[in-house]
Design goal:
165 residues; alpha+beta; seven-stranded antiparallel sheet; 5 helices; 7 strands; 35% helix; globular; cytoplasm; SsrA-binding protein; SsrA-bd_prot
Length: 165
């Protein structure tokens, strides 16, 4: 059989993203963590079903765990099916774990999941060291985003009138 090259879409398939995290938190540093999953969890993820909206990460006995990630039960699973919101272990290098644990012990820092995807056949979770935003920070960020969008729109319409494509 001929070996078929996988396209980039097949190698890095994004299953779920946490768009609200970038709104609610100031992202300071990101990491890519492997996940310890059962077979039915992987099959459910391959169907493209997951939610990171309520997820967070905690340290327990020196290990990093992802909690409240929603991976629904696999429909064709039997008695071996997993719990939808169970605690899942994250795999990082020891140096990264120590660095993260020190920063989380400081006041105001937390670890939030940003996206869940497959990379070369393995499930990965992009996590971020983050600091919570205040309400006025969120309003300011939305206003800035809206202003940028309006400025781009004005430039586009001006260029269209001038005949620049």
């Amino acid at each position: 059989m001929a070996n078929k090259k996988k396209t980039k879409d097949q190698r890095n398939h994004v299953v779920a993203t946490n768009r609200k995290a970038r709104h609610d938190y100031e992202i300071l540093d990101t990491y890519e963590a492997g996940m310890v999953l059962t077979g039915t969890e992987v099959k459910s993820l391959r169907e493209g079903k997951a939610s990171l909206a309520e997820g967070f990460c905690t340290f327990y006995r020196g290990e990093l765990w992802a909690e409240m990630l929603y991976i629904p039960e696999y429909l064709n699973g039997s008695w071996t099916n997993h719990a939808a919101r169970r605690r899942r272990k994250l795999l990082l290098h020891r140096k990264e774990l120590v660095k993260l644990e020190r920063r989380v012990d400081e006041a105001g820092f937390t670890i939030v999941p940003l996206s869940l995807y497959f990379k070369e056949g393995r499930a990965k979770l992009e996590i971020a060291l983050a600091r919570g935003k205040k309400e006025w920070d969120k309003r300011h960020a939305l206003k800035e985003k809206q202003d940028n969008r309006e400025a781009l729109r004005a430039l586009r319409s001006r260029n269209r009138r001038a005949g620049v494509v």
